[in-house]
Design a protein that fits this description.
about 240 residues, alpha+beta, three-stranded antiparallel beta sheet, 5 helices
Length: about 240
């Protein structure tokens, strides 16, 4: 096939068999690289496409008031209903919003809620977020909630709310005491209160001088029979 040259020729060279061999080798090497890249992509485990947002979502709003914030925080967690109308119908979190009059924590709260919402939409097991948030400690120290439970930080309390929501929608099973443990705790509590009937108690019925329990983080641990025992969860240093 004839080729018409319309531009001025400024130089020329002869294509040898060696040049053709080099060009073929380069093409083969490029193809091998593309195949390796395709194999690596195939090994990547995808969590699935992010869920698309329905027109309407159901959810709950939780109010928390802490000593470290001037105003209350309102945490709204919206859920998407999966497999609606089937025996496998269940709720899973889709997005989270935190609102407050206090603008001091605005930037990191917005960042946190956006990241959490993105994780929710990716699917999979999102319950790990509870432990990640609850393990955040405030460098200046935490605070005690009503009832004597110690909270290490504001982020940790957001984790507590998330855990409460997971319990409500069935993503987590709430750990509970068996009948024997409940009976033992009630007996220990009644025995202690009988011996110290004239001493003051807080609203939850625990002695005001109770120590912090390492298991449930509640100020309900008292010394009974020479052993530190928690009147809230039953944890005992003596087993």
């Amino acid at each position: 096939m004839a080729i018409k040259i319309e531009k001025k020729i400024t130089g020329y060279s002869v294509v040898t068999e060696e040049d053709k061999a080099k060009e073929a080798a380069a093409a083969a090497q490029q193809e091998a690289h593309e195949q390796q890249a395709a194999q690596k992509m195939a090994q990547i485990v995808q969590l699935g496409e992010p869920l698309s947002r329905p027109e309407m979502l159901v959810g709950n709003t939780y109010k928390i008031k802490t000593p470290v914030t001037e105003h209350a925080l309102y945490i709204t967690i919206n859920d998407v209903i999966m497999n609606e109308g089937t025996p496998q119908e269940h709720r899973r979190p889709f997005e989270v919003f935190i609102n407050s009059k206090n603008m001091e924590h605005f930037q990191w709260i917005v960042a946190l809620t956006r990241v959490m919402s993105a994780v929710f939409r990716k699917g999979g097991d999102v319950t790990f977020l509870v432990e990640e948030l609850r393990s955040v400690f405030e460098p200046s120290g935490g605070y005690f909630k009503k009832g004597g439970k110690f909270i290490p930080s504001l982020v940790a309390e957001i984790g507590e709310v998330l855990e409460q929501h997971f319990y409500q929608i069935g993503m987590l099973k709430k750990p509970g005491l068996d009948e024997h443990q409940k009976k033992l705790i009630e007996e220990k509590k009644a025995e202690y209160l009988e011996k110290h009937a004239n001493e003051p108690r807080n609203e939850e019925g625990f002695p005001p001088g109770a120590q912090l329990c390492n298991k449930c983080n509640t100020k309900a641990a008292i010394v009974m029979d020479g052993c530190l025992t928690c009147l809230n969860c039953g944890d005992s240093k003596c087993g």
